[in-house]
Design brief:
four-stranded mixed β-sheet; 2 domains; binds pyridoxine-5'-phosphate; Collagenase (Catalytic Domain); eight-stranded parallel β-barrel; 12 strands; single chain; alpha/beta
């Protein structure tokens, strides 16, 4: 066992995904050419960390990470393949995660990289030159780890439903969502989304069929899992479908699918799409139960509902909702699902979500169309893309 994790935490400590941390540590050893080495990671409380900090460094209070090398001093000869211990205070990591607006597990990885760099002989206190070398090493390791995640900018898929809403308000044939989709693609959008609702309140069958012929990037058909719409999807063959809950009276999709409560219906729809080679995404709330159920029914993607985050009325509430999204995206990604997100995203709240490297695509409609009325559609899409860089 090259990586050993021991935990002195209790029930009130922030939750840690130990298996994930073990896998990351093993991968780090591999990247460093030390696959044969043994590493011990100790997860401790602030109280325990303060004791260690006092005894070994004569410093007061807890710190985030301490490394104890077995390759130095009188233990070196006995150490064999054992590199040493990286001790991390999970409580300090959690505070730093909140400060950096990342998940606790992400922060633990950053601290693990720092601790490991120490065990490999790097140091940031001896001289500026050595500190620079250590920072460079840590950056390289993190980049190599992130290489397993999204490497490029997050993709933007534009939902053109509201172009059709405006058309239907007059009952004539303009503005045309098909033309709008082309403009969005020319401006840099990498996907077009339309929701063919049962009541056909905006997008019509004709739009979906024409878009299938004209979209050059990726056509994502949003739909309820009803027989009529499933048949249309199987005929039109979009590049992917996103299953959403659909209620006739709602103004817009109000929340995520209850996948765990209707596994049979959803897995049936997924089976039919899979046979036609159409990947399925499930629009779900940032909720661990729904992620597990999505994986169990065979979804390829989940789209995490960002509506509650977008509707938050205080910074505190928004931070809490963001954390739920970040944790859910992380969990889904680690479970092997591909992760998209959307709903209610606008020019103020998108950048924070776009920074999450577990999410590959955002689906945005209303905010871009609203801005397009004043600045034009091309400009509105480009401005959104700029925010996501
Ligand atoms: N994702 C899903 C599943 C949706 O239903 C919608 C709304 O149609 C969106 C994303 C886009 O939401 P908004 O129009 O608020 O950007």
């Amino acid at each position: 066992m090259p990586v050993l994790i021991s935990s002195e935490l209790n029930d009130s400590s922030p939750p840690v995904r130990e298996q994930h941390l073990r896998e990351v540590a093993a991968h780090l050893l591999y990247i460093c050419g030390r696959s044969e080495a043994e590493l011990s990671i100790m997860l401790v409380s602030d109280e325990r960390m303060a004791e260690l900090n006092q005894v070994y460094r004569n410093r007061k209070g807890p710190t985030n990470v301490l490394s104890f090398s077995l390759m130095e001093g009188r233990d070196a000869e006995m150490a064999g393949n054992m590199l040493g211990d990286v001790v991390i205070s999970v409580e300090t990591a959690a505070r730093e995660a909140a400060r950096d607006k990342v998940t606790v597990n992400r922060r633990l990885v950053v601290l693990l990289v720092h601790g490991l760099a120490h065990l490999l002989g790097y140091d940031h206190e001896r001289s500026d030159r050595e500190a620079d070398l250590m920072t460079k090493m840590e950056k390289e390791l993190l980049q190599q780890l992130n290489g397993q995640r999204r490497k490029n900018m997050m993709k933007l898929a534009i939902n053109v439903d509201h172009v059709a809403t405006l058309r239907e308000a007059r009952g004539i044939d303009e503005p045309d969502p098909v033309l709008a989709a082309g403009i969005c693609e020319l401006a840099g959008a990498e996907g077009i989304v339309v929701h063919l609702r049962e009541d056909r309140r905006h997008i019509q069958d004709r739009d979906v069929r024409l878009l299938r012929q004209t979209v050059k990037t990726k056509l994502n058909l949003e739909m309820g899992a009803t027989e009529e719409i499933i048949k249309i999807a199987l005929q039109v063959r979009p590049d992917m479908v996103t299953l959403v809950p659909e209620k006739r009276k709602e103004l817009t999709t109000e929340g995520g699918l209850n996948v765990s409560g209707q596994k049979k219906k959803i897995s049936g729809a997924i089976d039919r799409m899979s046979k036609a080679g159409i990947p399925v995404s499930l629009f779900i709330d940032p909720d661990s139960r729904q992620i597990k159920a999505s994986r169990n029914v065979g979804a390829t993607f989940v789209e995490i509902h960002t509506g509650t985050y977008a509707d938050a009325t205080s910074e505190k509430e928004q931070d809490e909702e963001f954390k739920k999204i970040a944790d859910a995206a992380e969990e889904a990604f680690e479970a092997g699902l591909r992760v998209n997100a959307g709903h209610g995203l606008n020019y103020v709240n998108t950048a924070q979500i776009a920074a999450l490297d577990t999410i590959e695509e955002l689906s945005i409609g209303h905010a871009v169309m609203s801005r397009a009325i004043f600045v034009g559609l091309d400009q509105a899409v480009r401005e959104m893309l700029a925010l996501m860089m």
